[in-house]
Amino acid sequence: MSAWAIRLHLKGIENHYLSPLPRTGKTAAEMDAWIEEGLAQEKRGELQEVYRKNEKQEEILMARGYEFEREQSGLEEEQEMEWTERVLIIQSPTHAEQQKKGLDQRVENARQKIGALTPPRGRGQRQIAEEEVLKKKIDQMLKAHHVEGLLEVKYEE
Question: CA-CA distance, 81 to 83, in Å (whole number)?
Answer without folding.
Answer: 7
